[in-house]
Amino acid sequence: MAIIPAGPIGVTVLGATGSIGVSTLDVIARHPQRYRVVALTANNQVERLFEQCRAFSPEYVVLAEADAAQQMQQRLADAGLQTTVLSGVEGLETVAALEQVQQVMAAIVGAAGLAPSLAAARAGKRILLANKEALVMSGQIFMDAVRENDAELLPIDSEHNAIFQSMPAGYACGQSLKGRGVRKILLTASGGPFRTLDKAQLESVTPAQACAHPNWDMGRKISVDSATMMNKGLEVIEACWLFNTTPAQIEVVIHPQSVVHSMVAYADGSVLAQMGNPDMRTPIAHAMAWPQRMDSGVETLDLFAVGQLNFERPDTQRFPCLRLAYEACAEGGAAPAILNAANEVAVEYFLDEKIRFTQIAQIIAETLQRLPQQPGDTLDSVLAADHVARETARDLAAELMT
Ligand code: NAD
Ligand code: MG
């Protein structure tokens, strides 16, 4: 576990320019005595990252792309700022493991977040984990790294943060639930923007419609995942690793208002829920301050304005991605990594308007079928499965386009 420093807590924000990154900086800005930004990273958004440098004066910035890093170097020099610029995966891994950093917000989207999240675990940091894909791809490796290096893992994904908040006192992520009186985990899902559409209507939905989530303002990839319900599927796998459980113990509950963020059902019949406005600053502030509480900028839930809470069963006929994720989770090995990789490719093709919405699930199902029983017990085997799954999914997408 990281040693608590005398001064402000040093924070690295991986994926600072994204939706979670921006919310994290909003929370940090409310507590300048408590937190200090040591490093910020982005893929290639030079201007946005530069503005963040001006506001937070980090010691380091990292751009994944080398050209962008060069532009940033120039931009900082012109402005007379002292920030050191790094690039590539090595740069991301470096700032995830710096000695002066105690907390790492892992908010890069997709498989690209795996290596730096793992570096933070190996360096024994408090990891604020938004990047669910890291756990989906290589849950065992990631959880082992957390345990072996005495890192501290706190979930940022709102549902998992809610589950964590509803767990018995003293529970730490990764520990067994046996003997704690937990019967099951109720994972809530908004149902996404297409919850009420029928199969035929789903054929013709557009990327813009998929990205217009009714309750949450998120990045484009996770927005499409919410629309297909793959996001919930990935979250089932994420929950299995975080809470050391089987998929059978996790029940998905559609809850269109996104007010109850998830629940834990106990042996005595109690169901504990965490509620709040749908704003990621709540789980971010919770995980950063834990076990204390601090202001996040989020208003208290107005139950009179909410009025009603509804719950429905998910429909895996219309949203087969959820079923595919449960199956991949139960299969184990590299199946979740293959599911994740095929999904990333298919979502990209859909966002580029090259395939239809309903073909996302088709590509994932077919990729999983073509690549049965790949090993996933080492990082190399996971990355190999990720690679071959991407190629297979691209081939399938190309076939669908012709
Ligand atoms: P986003 O697309 O808004 O931001 C992604 C960030 O990652 C950006 O800073 C981008 O520059 C960076 N990035 C993208 N590709 C990269 C690469 N190849 N190398 C290095 N950096 C790269 O995404 P988001 O919505 O903030 O989501 C981030 C993560 O958090 C995802 O894993 C998502 O599933 C998870 N999450 C998000 C929300 C939400 O409300 N947005 C909720 C729960 C979980
Ligand atoms: Mg979520």
- Helix content, binned percent: 40-55%
Largest sheet: 7 strands, parallel
* Small molecules (ligands, ions, cofactors) in the structure: nicotinamide-adenine-dinucleotide, magnesium ion
Secondary structure tally: strands: 11
CATH class designation of the largest domain: Mainly Alpha
In CATH terms, the superfamily of the largest domain is RNA polymerase sigma factor, region 2, helix turn helix motif
Rg to the nearest angstrom?
20 Å
Terminal-residue CA separation: 53 Å
Poorly predicted sequence stretches spanning 5 or more consecutive residues:
none
Could you report the average pLDDT, rounded to the nearest whole number?
96
Tally of separate domains:
2
Order of SSEs, N→C?
Answer: EHEHEHEHEHEHEHEHHHHEEEHHHHHH
CATH architecture of the largest domain: Orthogonal Bundle
Counted by DSSP, the helix tally is 17
The strand line-up of the biggest sheet is 4-3-2-1-5-6-7
How big a fraction of the residues is strand? 5-15%
Shape: globular
Secondary-structure-derived class = alpha/beta
The CATH topology of the largest domain turns out to be Rna Polymerase Sigma Factor, Chain: A
Give a written overview of the molecule:
The chain folds into two domains: 9-131, Rossmann fold, CATH 3.40.50.720; 182-401, Rna Polymerase Sigma Factor, Chain: A (Orthogonal Bundle). Helices cover 47% and strands 15% of the residues. It has 17 helices and eleven strands. It has helices spanning 19-29, 46-56, 66-79, 88-96, 114-122, 132-148, 158-166, 199-202, 207-211, 220-228, 230-242, 281-289, 303-306, 320-331, 335-351, 358-370, 379-401; strands at residues 9-14, 35-42, 60-63, 84-87, 103-106, 126-129, 152-155, 182-189, 250-254, 260-266, 271-275. Strand 10 and strand 11 form a beta hairpin.
